[in-house]
Amino acid sequence: MQSPSKAPFEWLARLGYGARGLVYCLVGGLAVLAGVGAGGQTGGSRSALATLLDQPFGKALLGMISLGLAGFAAWRTVEGVTDADHRGSSRSSLGVRAAHIGSGAIYAGLAIFALNLALGRSSGSGSEDRAARDWTAWLLSQPFGQWLVGAIGLGVIGAGVGFVLKGWRGQVTAYLTCDAATSRWAVPLGRVGFAARGVVFVLVGGFLVLAALHSNSREVKGLGSALESLRQHPFGWLLLAVTAAGLFAFGLFGFVQARYRRIHPPDLEEATRSVRAQVRSTTT
User: Fold this and answer.
1) How many folded domains does the chain comprise?
2) Is 247 among the domain residues?
């Protein structure tokens, strides 16, 4: 029987995977419609969430999504700090854990954005590209800024390649506990989803590298503009539609993760001790 002090972490994680899945379904679904010329939009997570404002009970749904994203942010942070997945302390494992902590910060910001939408404090009209370009411009103005932006871009590209390889090799259920019948449809869904997510990461990272090379923050593109850039290629509408459909598949796979993900939440006291140890190790 699971310790009562561990249960909150598991519920936070499962709620979070579901909320992230819903966001990707919104992004991918709207972009598919845009790709086939049936309306929709090629936007990022924030603009996709903003479309819920016009739907029945949209603000209530945004409030629930905000709660889920906050849970996911908390879980990612705890997961990275305490090594809840028992990845170990190799260089690659530490890199994954650090990425999870960074992911936690990103989803915390998205949770706050969704909450502000639900409370009527934001219209959702802010440009995601502008936000990305603002922080890139600030970073470029710092010492070794071009190198930092370039390193971040290469890191994003590396993560994208990793996602594509994960989809190619079919290692998408490594942390799931599901029977053979579920795996038969969950594996292809996850493979397509991770591959599409990887393509988007490579695009976003590539634009960051260009910004570093040219020392120009206007080269940076957010998720929506990265998807839109696919239209510039031959059969661009098809590339956009296929990639967007893959993102929708990744969203659906998020619901699979919410149900079947193996989650080993640390004890609250254990997590507190681990965080304190991490803090002490970085200050000594």
Assistant:
1) 1
2) yes
